[in-house]
């Protein structure tokens, strides 16, 4: 009898240890997930928080465990920004029963928060947060490419429809020109023809901008290309109260590019930087710095300025066709630049913050990488 009791007790102890090991194993997995996890019980007390969530909130796990929502919102180490986010999520999750939330942090990264509750949770509320910035970037790139493709088709159609009547008008004016000469009105014919030609040039530029032609590549030293660009922009920069500084790379780097197109991209970025500096007023000492850096099989051209910078909403739409913050802008410059760099098998990125300036990075494959 006693041996049976001992055996039963031993089995119970083994079962307890086994369940404890399984519990510890799963808790360890939850603690080290790349997603942030936080759990509140039915009384509103925080019973579990993993390492990632504590990092996101920038507060120690120990100081948060056992706290109610009110105590968390009064936590001295929790930033005001995070307190506002937590309160907003709580209201939407508890009162509006919203299960999914998209958030952006102070650095502009995108997060997806999921709330799980109901009978299966036995009254508990589970909040999980995952960084979806990369997925958002892919989504925006796909959306941007679709818009650019549509823009190319629309612009080609518009250009064709406008060019036809302009060609006819030009022909008739030339036929009428001898009669206008007799009437002493040759100047009228000259002006009409000049304006028709100007309209054709605008249409051509728009068409070329919305759908850049295939690159006609030439091997060129990056330093040589950038020196030419600096020479082209120096006088305008001085007029707008800023300086363009080129920090030349000691090691010679060569790229195979359509020189005209890449110049167009760099000039467009520098001109935008000048405008951003000019908006801060004549007393602001503006500086635009250009640097190059070799990065494995590519070269990075970094263009930074100390202008007014951009907010997150502007950054997310920066390369969209027709998006502009300028009164006289077309919104095509950066969308075209994006397409040109993509056609060169490179990429363009931007980092900016209001009051701290902007930095563009253009990455292009080196000649050695293209040959390989």
TrEMBL record:
Task: State the UniProt keywords alphabetically.
Answer: ATP-binding, Kinase, Nucleotide-binding, Phosphoprotein, Transferase, Two-component regulatory system
Top-level division of the source organism's lineage: Bacteria
Q: Name one GO molecular function term.
A: phosphorelay sensor kinase activity
Q: What is its EC number?
A: 2.7.13.3
The record's annotation in SMART domains points to: HATPase_c (SM00387), HisKA (SM00388), PAS (SM00091)
Residue ranges of domain PAS in the record? 22-77
Does the keyword section mention Nucleotide-binding? yes
Class of the enzyme per the UniProt entry, highest EC level = transferase
Instruction: Name the Gene3D superfamilies for this protein.
Output: 1.10.287.130, Histidine kinase-like ATPase, C-terminal domain, PAS domain
List, alphabetically, the Pfam families matched: HATPase_c, HisKA, PAS_7
Under catalytic activity, the entry for this protein gives: ATP + protein L-histidine = ADP + protein N-phospho-L-histidine
Which residue intervals define the domain Histidine kinase in the entry? 157-368
By its UniProt entry, which PANTHER family does this protein fall under? PEROXIDE STRESS-ACTIVATED HISTIDINE KINASE MAK3, SENSOR HISTIDINE KINASE
**Entry's NCBIfam families?**
sensory_box
* Protein name from the UniProt record: histidine kinase
Organism whose genome encodes this protein: Paenibacillus pini JCM 16418
